[in-house]
Amino acid sequence: HRQIFTLMMERKELQAELNVAKKKSAKPMLWVSMISMVMFFAGLTSAYVISMKRDDWVTFDLPNAFYTSTAFIVCSSITLLLSQRFLKKNQKDTSRILLIITLGLGYGFVFQQRIGFKELEAAGLYFTGKSSTVSTSFLIGVTLMHVLHLAAGIISLMVVIYNHYKNKYSQDDM
User: Fold this and answer.
1) Tens of pLDDT along 140-168?
2) How many CB atoms lie within 10 A of CB 16?
3) Residue 105 pairs with which residues in a beta bridge?
4) Euclidean distance between CA atoms 114 and 1, whole angstroms
5) Distances 169 to 22, 83, 96, 130, 162 between C-alpha atoms, Å
6) Within 10 A of 144 (CB to CB), how many other CB atoms are there?
7) Is-contact 161 99, C-beta < 8 A?
8) No. of H helices and E strands in the chain?
9) pLDDT at position 103 over 80
10) Which ranges in 62-91 belong to alpha helices (H)?
11) Dihedral of CA 120/125/128/134: which sign?
């Protein structure tokens, strides 16, 4: 019985050490991924600015839906930060509501992007084919990469909301 008890204690200690190690590595991994995303989008932005000097570059006004989507994504960042602050104050219900609002704003962003692209197509600006231009093709490329990034964010946010409902977060974890 003593050996079983010792093995159980060793397992508990090992699990406790593993939990500490996970918490220590989570923040550096988050920073690495954030920095790599910033570098990726900085590279795309740089390529966009350089490509604007091409002779075949066509300028056009962006549809208002793109500005609305930008407002949605900025608001989603604010609601996400507020959610974290309310969780730190142990106001879980308010935090949960703000997370759901953040998710809704993310979906709103995607919806507005779709509307914007439909408006560009209605204006005769196509992304592929004979009628496409370098500028519109570039815009769709950048946006598609952004949508992939956003999809990962929405999936992550859904996991956070699920874990929030399971009470896996507390003010002590923040």
Assistant:
1) 777 778 788 888 889 999 999 999 888 88
2) 10
3) none
4) 65
5) 15, 12, 11, 53, 11
6) 12
7) yes
8) 4, 0
9) yes
10) 64-88
11) negative
- CA 155 remoteness from chain centre: 9
Q: What is the spatial distance between Cα 8 and Cα 45, in angstroms, rounded to a whole number?
A: 54
CA distance 47 to 142: 10
Decide: residue 75, CB within 10 A, 0-12 exposed, 13-18 middle, 19+ buried: middle
7-54 pLDDT per residue, tens: 777 788 888 888 777 777 878 888 898 899 889 889 888 888 888 888
User: Which residues are bridge partners to 126 per DSSP?
Assistant: 132
Q: Rounded distance, CA 75 to CA 56, Å?
A: 36
Provide the terminal-to-terminal Cα distance of the chain, rounded to the nearest Å. Answer: 39
Place of tokens 């550096």: 28
- How confident is the model at residue 95, as a pLDDT? 94
Both tokens assigned to 60:
């056009």
**Cα-Cα-Cα-Cα dihedral sign, residues 66, 68, 71, 75:** negative
What is the rounded distance in angstroms from the CA atom of residue 93 to the CA atom of residue 164?
A: 10
